[in-house]
Every structure is written in structure tokens, then in C-alpha cells.
Amino acid sequence: MASGDRVRVRGVSIFRPIIYGNTATVLTPKERESLSSPDHTHKWTVAVRSAASVPDSEQVGGADDLGYFIKRVTFKLHDTYSNPARNIDKPPFEVSETGWGEFEIQIRITFIPEAGEKAMVMYHHLKLHPWTASGEPEIPPLDAAIKAGPVHSWQYDEVVFNDPYQNFLNLLTSHPPTPLPKTKKKPVPFHLANPGSLEASKGGVPEFISQMEKEEADRLEEARQAVIAEQDRWRAMLIEKEKEAQRLTKQI
Ligand code: SLL
């Protein structure tokens, strides 16, 4: 083992932007005929990809190959599927299937051993039916759904490595992520955390832009502040209760 393998670089934090989620399309009558399960209505792909998209591509994200730091992605599908735990050991980290129903998919990202990091587990609700601003599920007739085009449901996230091993840090810095575009050229991906974006998400293949990175950071900061405020509230309450306990002890 070379020196540097076991040295953590203290105080350094490095992240890689990823997206996870799915795209779903209604099957054509012809496609349905050729399936062994005639009740299936949609084809879908669930994936973990780099956040940046390839210019002029029909795919959301995936400009960068994430195989340099991800060893395996396990997608745990609904038990109605055969071999529900799908291990993908090289890019593209994705699973394509057909089906009729939405369900929760567990996504486990295992990093390369050099990272010395625990696996990261996320959950994604497989989305087949078009978004509604309210978030209420609404299943349109199939012909209307075909007209509306593919459904996209993608979450932006950042894989953060704190105090990385020197060698792993070198590996990461030698693979800088493709920067996200600064301006919006395509629709933006819709997410319920941002219901106002429903209109801006329509009309084609969505693309993540740097604005969304900032929005994600703002949401995290907001959550952090809320946690601190909550901690302060509990601490104040605790002090109050301790005073009361002292008072009561004295009275005995
Ligand atoms: C529901 N709770 O009731 C969900 C379950 C299951 C989805 C959805 C096909 C499986 C197969 C399929 O779409 N399963 O035929 O292999 O909506």
C-alpha cells in the first residue's frame, strides 16, 4: 500500500453532483403485444447519473461517467419483479423495465474501496404518471398520457466526502465534473420541493442548471437553520425544567 492511502486530508470537503430518478413512457399497443405481461402499460428507466447532461441529448444527466468513484449501484425494485435487487457494477448505472404501477425504489450506491466510505442509500418513488401541481396522484387516460410525452422525475444531490483519503482526493480532483449550464435552454426538472416549476418543466427533456444547485444549497441552509432554532428551543426548555427541579428539590 502506498503512503497516502491511509492519510486523511483533514478539513477538506469535496463533492460530486449526481442525479437519481426515472423517466417513464407509455407503451405503444405494438410494444404491449410483444410483452409476456399484457397488463404492463409503461416502460421506464431508473438511474444514477452525473447531473450535467450531454448537449442535445434525449437523456437527463449522464455527461460524466461516474465509474471512477462508484463501484456498484443496487436498485431494489418492487417484489412483483423477478430478482428485485438489481446490482449494476459498471456505468451506466441504470435499470430499464416495463410495468403498470408506481412504487418506492431503494437505491444503494457503493463507492470504490479506496474511498473508505459507507454506502449511501436513497429512495426514489418510481413515477409513471404525469406531474400535477398539487402532487395529488392523477392517472390520465393512456392516450392523453401518450400525447403528454415521457414523464421525468429526477432528484439533484451532492455526494460529499469529508476528510477524504489523499489518494481518493487525487482521484476525484483528476475527474472534475462537467459544470452545469448557467442558463436555461431546456425545461427544468420538476420536483415537488419546487411546485412552482411545473410549467417550466414542460415541453421536452429537462436539464439541470446551476441555478438548481444554488436552490438546493438554500434549502439545505434553511433546514440547518430550522434544526438550530429547534435545538435552541429545546435547550431553553431543558434549562427551565432543571430550574424547576431545583426549586422543587429545595421545597422537600
Ligand atoms: C401499486 N404498490 O399497487 C404498488 C405496486 C407494483 C408494480 C406496484 C409489474 C410487476 C411485474 C409492476 O408494475 N409492479 O409484472 O413483474 O400500485
UniProtKB/TrEMBL annotation:
Q: What is its main location?
A: nucleus
InterPro entries (alphabetical): YEAST_sf, YEATS, YEATS_dom
Quick check: keyword Cytoplasm in the entry?
A: yes
Q: Where in the cell is it found?
A: Nucleus; Cytoplasm
Superkingdom to which the source organism belongs: Eukaryota
One GO CC term of this entry? Swr1 complex
Which Pfam families does the record cross-reference, listed alphabetically?
Answer: YEATS
| GO BP field | chromatin organization; DNA repair; regulation of DNA-templated transcription
Q: Which UniProt keywords apply?
A: Activator, Chromatin regulator, Coiled coil, Cytoplasm, DNA damage, DNA repair, Nucleus, Transcription, Transcription regulation
Q: Which residue stretches, if any, does this entry annotate as coiled coil? A: 210-251
Residue ranges annotated for the YEATS domain, each copy included: 8-175
Q: What is known of its domains?
A: The coiled-coil domain is required for assembly into the NuA4 complex.
Q: What family does the entry list?
A: Belongs to the YAF9 family.
Q: Please give the subunit comment from the record.
A: Component of the SWR1 chromatin-remodeling complex and of the NuA4 histone acetyltransferase complex.
Q: Please give the function described in this protein's UniProt entry.
A: Component of the SWR1 complex which mediates the ATP-dependent exchange of histone H2A for an H2A variant leading to transcriptional regulation of selected genes by chromatin remodeling. Component of the NuA4 histone acetyltransferase complex which is involved in transcriptional activation of selected genes principally by acetylation of nucleosomal histones H4 and H2A. The NuA4 complex is also involved in DNA repair. Yaf9 may also be required for viability in conditions in which the structural integrity of the spindle is compromised.
Q: What is this protein called?
A: Protein AF-9 homolog
Q: Which organism is it from?
A: Collybia nuda
